[in-house]
Please model this.
Amino acid sequence: MKYLYYPGCSLESQAQAYDLSVKTVFRLLGHDLQEIEDWNCCGATAYMSVKETVAFSISARNLALAEKLGGEVVAPCSSCFTILTKTNNYLKKNPDLKELVNQALRSGGLEYSGNTPVRHPLDVLVNDVGVEVIKLQLKRELNGLKIAPYYGCQLVRPERGFDDREFPTTMDDLFAQLGAEIAYFPMKARCCGGMLMSTFPEVGLKLSKEILECAGENEADVIITTCPMCHINLEAYQGRINLKFGTDFKTPVWYFTQLLGWALGANEEELGLKYNFVNISKRKLSSLGVTA
Amino acid sequence: MDVDYQALKLTQPGVMPKSERELRASFLAQLELIPGGDKIKACIQCGTCTGSCPVSYAMDISPRGVMALFRAGDIESILRSRTIWVCASCYVCTTRCPSGIKITDILYALKRIAMDKGIFPSRFPVYALSEQFVKMVNKYGRNYELGLVVRFNLKTGWKKFLEMAPLGWKMFRHGRLAFKPTRIKGLEQIRKIISQAEKASVAIEREIPEYASPVGYGVMVEVSKDANRAGGGD
Model:
């Protein structure tokens, strides 16, 4: 299968670590990622709340570009993933909308049939590549590491996809097979606050604090996530959360591809560990995989 | 008993004011865009949405209240509430609604109407974030995060801007700030697409409803409408 890479705006700037680690993991597993040339912003939830037809049209431009290349779109950002999937679903269910969107696309010399699948790398890695194949490439077993897999909302809920909408388990299964201990983590699909961190900080900070608390109480060494928005809220805002609630969080939050890449033997640079504010302690990291 | 509706400045009982009728018409047009949007008729007011919502504690009208107000013919109150802007669009309500109502998408539709008609709660700059975002994308084709955050925070007050400074500094130290926006090559193309899409926003010819009727209790509403037309009340 040809995988067409749609990084999205966040992965270009504050989430470079995700961009690097997704590419590294795919390379190590022997799969090519071809970037969709000249992709544009997916529209995100903000555009969706202003002008719907326009939002679907700019989103569909990316899908039209991908369709010309032929293959499946791989979008690591949960928000991009859900918006592109939503565009596909809406166009399929609403022919009038599809016609309007295509009118708009045609004015830019493009056309979209609506048949380019949109996938998340977690789905591709687990369901296409397969855990068995990943295990064959394993360089560092994750024994002794307790992780809290955090899925957030956009990956699993809005458009029914590859996992349960309220109690997803794809990451749990994947990392358990790689030797990690999975923490009890009932908050794994609860909202981190998303954009509220900017618009209603008092609400956003509370939501993220509750998730960090839950991971802490269950003694997770690290939270792993699939989404740049969840990552920035749970990680970068820890300082403000500590300030507001008098807590003392120093919880490492990694992209799931960073941890997967580490298990596959990648080095710090290839995974962009320097971009993280808090990392898993060096001692812990070097103790991993001694057996393998 | 005869009621002098003119004296009461009402046309007929149950008839909505003109502004509300127009809001309702645009809302119903928006609903048609949402696959399964008509399920709003099936709300049983169970409150699962409100109970599941992680931010309902910060709302002035609960999600269930939104459904009830729509049913009662008072969309304007919804638009003037904090509720639609507090929604973080986490979709738990939609996932759990036993009637299959697309609550999150409905709140999106209400946000669009609020922005379109310029009806907001007083002193409330939240929509500024969406506005700035759209400007960014129209200008560069991609979102420019740093520019977005700076502009939004400047617009909502310098105090907030100062609060953000330590975080900004940390982001900078870890190399996570991009100081230049990326412009896509197909800017001309995307602008054409946007302007065409703006012209073509779904123009569905529809009747402006007189009563807040299309939701639930279908048959009963039909009956009471006839009763009203006949002069009603005696």
